[in-house]
């Protein structure tokens, strides 16, 4: 028979062992938080090579510094910084529900010849857009002057089957030129976008592929715009500015942007 001392010692070590076992739920939560924090820390930064090449970071991942609402003095409440992303809080009412948000633009400087890179993720049935070479006009939306790289949930938003030949699907020059190949990822997944503009030649890239090319201020461009809806909103729409704003659209849906950087050319 074991002595009382032996029984006590054995019980003590069992108790200690039980108390020091990792709490799986707590540890898993901590691990997920650490991974999330590490992922956020890796975003919205320039590499040494990018900095040497002249890239400029447009979004720091921490706040809306450098950004403000179109025709507004401040950064609107309808946009927030969430987990290292620039997020538009959707109203669910399309463009009509953008009272607390509205489109935002990078206000520090404008660009003419540039290489713009940005990552985007859209909510189910969501719609947004990336504007470039835009001009801010009092009382007017930025789309009345700026070409738009369409951001869309192709599977669930009706814009995907409107327009002509898919020219309202994600990556397209909105309502003008369709993105081909159409390589957009489903809602909730990140897509990479790149817009190159140089002396009127413009290229859209998405997820590593060139999806369209066009040239501003040419007879072909003027004819393209002439046969679109834009002249009814702005007769001078085809005369896109040679230097303008980078802006992001509030179309009433949740949308996230990150890793926004540009290299003047």
Model description:
- The chain has 5 helices and 13 strands.
- With 265 residues, the protein is α+β, with helices and mostly antiparallel strands.
- The protein folds into 2 domains: 1-42; 46-264, Exo-inulinase, domain 1 (Jelly Rolls), CATH 2.60.120.560.
- The strands form 2 sheets. Strands 1, 3, 4, 6, 9, 10, 11 and 13 form an 8-stranded antiparallel β-sheet that branches.
- β9 (191-198) and β10 (201-206) form a beta hairpin.
- It is globular, with a radius of gyration of 25 Å.
Secondary-structure map:
Elements: H1 4-19, H2 24-42, H3 48-53, E1 56-57, E2 67-69, E3 79-82, E4 85-88, E5 104-106, E6 114-122, E7 127-134, E8 148-152, E9 191-198, E10 201-206, E11 209-215, H4 219-226, H5 230-233, E12 245-248, E13 255-264
Antiparallel strand pairs: 1-13, 2-5, 3-4, 4-13, 5-12, 6-9, 6-13, 7-8, 7-12, 9-10, 10-11
The major sheet is characterized as: 8 strands, antiparallel
Cα separation of the termini: 87 Å
CATH architecture of the largest domain: Sandwich
The CATH topology label of the largest domain is Jelly Rolls
Number of domains: 2
Q: What is the CATH homologous superfamily assignment of the largest domain?
A: Exo-inulinase, domain 1
How would you sum up this structure in a few lines?
By secondary structure, the protein is α+β, with helices and mostly antiparallel strands. It has five helices and 13 strands.
Keywords:
13 strands; Jelly Rolls; globular; five-stranded antiparallel beta sheet; 265 residues; disordered N terminus
